What does this fold into?
Amino acid sequence: MIRRGLQGAARLRHHGALPGAARILPRLNPASAFGSSTDSLVSRFCPEKTDLKDYALPNASWCPDMLSLYQEFLEKTKADGWVKLPSFKSNRDHIQGLKLPSGLAATSDKSDWRLFTRCIPVEGQGFEYAIFFHPSKKKSVCLFQPGPYLEGAPGFAHGGSLTTMIDETFSKIAFLAGEGLLTLSLNIKFKNLIPVGSLAVLNIDVEKIEDQKLYMSCVAQSRDQKTIYAKCSGVFLRLQLEQE
Amino acid sequence: MLRSCAARLHALGALRGLPGAARPPARSPGPARRSLFLEADFHKDSSLPKPSWSKDMRLLFDQFMKKCEDGSWTRLPFYSYKAVQNVHDFIAFIHGSLPSTAKLVDKEQLSQAQIFTESFKDGLGFEYVMFYNDAEKRTVCLFQGGPHLQGMPGFLHGGAVATMIDATVGMSAIKAEGLVMTANLNINFKRPVPLCSVVVINSHLDKTEGRKLFISCDVRSVDETTLYSEATSSPSSRRKCGPSPAPLTRC
It folds into this structure.
């Protein structure tokens, strides 16, 4: 039913945008429950064995704060229910075997396209980050170290890079917590600038899950929690991926 | 948060400090009038047409350049960060405003730094050019997001859209108030933007209340039929430009 509805929407869009059309996609039937539970989504997302390179692993550019906090969370993955999320070069690699709903799939597809936060390949120059997720508490922590290529004001990370990191973490958590797929809105309040090369800890909570939307909040702060860098809330659209 | 204020200040200085500012600045007008921003040794203006620009991008660019002819619109050039390194006053301002975080700045890393939106090789990341209309208090940014800015397969990352909205809104604010800091940014995404397509980001200063500015912005397709996102922002000016010999404060 979802497939037919989306195909209908795709046909409508093909004939030009409808003026005043409030929805980009048809209303999803609440009865068609999102079948995948968080646990099954997580196990699919975190394959036991894979040839793909996981970029969310320590490297020489990580500052001591980042390394030690990473180790702390790694310990928590052993017994406390935390999961470390792998991070591949493209979202395509994260959804192997699945694809975007037919109304949304891009018409062309190039293999050299890369996930924005993984496209600066030189260690330490761009986004260095690792995301940990707690499926039952629906919480997440992202350790983020912005490199010199992300600069805005001299010595500090560009606000856009922090917004990007928050959006990226939101998108992974939204997917795992409730098949959230697309950002609907972001509301970010900047408090302080993040020095380039230092660690920012992003704490994310899933606030509410509705039929079609997922609400999350994030606080980005220094490790000692004395400096708050930004607060952000985000809403994601829930959409089921289709089998290829 | 200070958006790439460094580059913006270049633009500001270039436009307000020199004669014939409406035309894209070519060379500095001569040693007597040399400003901090137009050192003779080098400038690379990344907001001029390049091979990586799509046809849509070039067409729009030409349309806007035409609008610049009568002076109502101006193209805002951007210069890479390296040329700003000597803007001591600017750096002092930042470090003065945020003393605790400023202590942590690694001076060595500063030397390798590039402004975020300029960090990508030609065509792979952010390709953009901004035009400003002073009478309408409007900044328009033509933005082509390259293949390394992907989010969902085939579409632009939300963060990339947010970055460009922030940059455009920031420019509106800087034009109005000089140095500013984003207090908050509120973005509603309506449709995902296909990767490698061109969008028009249109930002407008709605009103000013004391030191607070209210700016609204929308992101549309080239033919304006598709609305990709809407945003509002309320930056506040940290400090009114004070009396100082540096061109920085010629706001």
